């Protein structure tokens, strides 16, 4: 009933649980051996370990060393487990399951390539009809996905909370108090009235911080909350005058609401219309009238799905499935909805996971009236273990989640992720939850919390900024700024004396106007192969980006693009130009500002004084073609290094850019004003073996994400073709 996120242990692989071992003349050892085997069979690995360590002959017995290694693995002592497996092999116990466990250990240690090698060795030993083949193949695929995700930039720093919170048992669902500063609530099944090594029922605890230091011991909540059954905290009422919690045993459990003046004395069950009883603790109360939870129904998409229910006229409505963009044929559990209702977090064991349950996020696309494709939060938030029970702090800068990864104290431990930027904070209008057609109530304007009205103003500002062109205030006097490209002869001479004063003035300008973003578009002379030109030009732009970041400009305000020699501004000598102009001006970084505050500004770019005979029209045509227009490119690769696929010198309009959030480089070819023309080239790429080629849309030279298509489709109807037929 209670899903704690524990991974299934590989008991299916252990076919030798009972050994008949005779130690001549040492009858005193029989009891420890029997006790060890009995505890091992019952999955009491800590207890079994105590008995195994009392057996003197274990140091010379391959089978016993293997079983002790399994115990060490199960209690997260991975290095000791590896040592026992190595010794077992040396003593002649060459069982293929040692390869399997070695794979598990390397998987949890983050050596995904090494883990895959051991899994493949084990797979070779399995018969074609062995039921375990599917599981091992799944683990190999998880290693591959983990390798892919490891190239992405981490979105947070993760730390394990201290032993005062985490024990050898399960700790789940840490939630920040809505009314008491620096107080946190969580649920644990650690024993509280017994010295038994077995887990107890789940109870609710709270603990406080003072100046960043946690209390030495948590406090257990009153008997009105914690009783003999499982009691799992789900959340607090919006006014902080009560809480929601799950209580029960298997087949007889329910969600309860508890209110009272500080003592939480009034408890009543919550009845949600459903064909089956809600029997797990995976529910999130957005407010008093909206709950999202995990439920398993025959009419769902497979496994556990996420549903929402709304309280209307005192009754909770029949659950509404959140649909196929969130739910999959696998399990979706542990939902959490951001404060503005625009971003949902949940855990799933779908195929895109790197092991067990991973945490995913999805943004609600109001214009498309659906959830976006969920994204894996990546490493280090997710691991080869299970990640569940995600929640955000009120400022959105921290998240709490539970994981049974192998550096935990045992079972599920609580971890904290520190984000660089706040998550789930007023991305969209906060007046409705469109996915369930629910209008939010107007908040009390007297509260000290951010009201829904102010949240709506903020979100409307953001939406207005992203979706509508800015109409200047004719009365206001625009502020002006004059700049020119940054010229260089080599990347090492980019930050030279002649460039530094202008670079510093741009930095100062961006500090003064925080809504300004900048794009560095690097061009270079023809030197070497196209692949090298592109990669080198991007690295030069990256050098300038680092200079800006070191002086206080956030990296999310900077984009970098490398165009190599695709668009020279001065002709080369063999094309009727002059060496001194091509050498002086073709290697340059063009500066493109994006004014996201929409303050009235006059940006004036100074062009180089190149005589007419020496000018190359390619750059002028390029800028005219992309200015205030939708264009399309063909992305042929997303890599973290120089592209080494098909030769790029056979294509026009080659480019490379760093893609935000991933740290990967996108290589594109072509430049088209028609989706159909771009699609034809994409199909040519398919025939050349580049099966993952994609059509990418750009506006004014800036890459567009899917959730922004709807902002431009009315002005650029051709974009609807991409929306309908995909990349």
Structural class: alpha+beta
Radius of gyration: 30 Å
Main sheet specs:
9 strands, mixed
First-residue to last-residue Cα separation: 42 Å
Number of strands: 36
Helix fraction bin: 25-40%
CATH topology of the largest domain: Neuraminidase
Q: Give me the CATH architecture of the largest domain, please.
A: 6 Propeller
Q: Mind explaining what this structure looks like?
A:
- It contains 15 helices and 36 strands.
- With 727 residues, it is of the alpha+beta class.
- The strands form eight sheets. Strands 27-30-28-29-33-34-32-35-36 form a nine-stranded mixed beta sheet.
- Helix 6 packs antiparallel against helix 7 (133-149).
- It starts with 29 loop residues before the first helix and ends with a helix.
Summarize the structure.
By secondary structure, the chain is of the alpha+beta class. Helix 3 runs antiparallel to helix 4 (78-90) and helix 6 packs antiparallel against helix 7. The strands form 8 sheets. Strands 27-30-28-29-33-34-32-35-36 form a 9-stranded mixed β-sheet.
